[in-house]
Design brief:
Elements lengths: L1 E10 L2 E8 L12 E2 L2 E8 L14 E6 L13 E3 L2
Antiparallel strand pairs: 1-2, 1-6, 2-5, 3-4, 4-5
Length: 83
């Protein structure tokens, strides 16, 4: 499944990537998932984001990077594959 990186957030104790799902349909996380070649935890969340019309934006997902130092490998606007 293809995603576009919206933003990368580094905080004490972790790094997260907010990415927009570009393909239509469901997806699942592999046993050892990678987003754009960067290892991510095997869980994700959907942040509370809104579309311009106020409707929930259900195409945004938050991925937790396994190694916070990998945050520099992903940049806003980058197209990445979830594998």
């Amino acid at each position: 499944m293809q995603f576009r990186v919206e933003t990368v957030i580094s905080r004490a104790g972790g790094a997260y990537v907010l990415a927009r799902q570009l393909g239509v349909g469901e997806f699942s996380l592999a046993e050892q998932p990678h987003l754009g070649g960067v290892p991510v935890a095997r869980w994700l969340s959907q942040p509370r984001a809104l579309m311009p019309d106020g409707a929930p934006d259900t195409s945004i997902f938050a991925f937790h990077l396994v190694s916070p130092s990998d945050a520099a490998k992903l940049v806003s606007g980058q197209l990445v594959e979830l594998a």
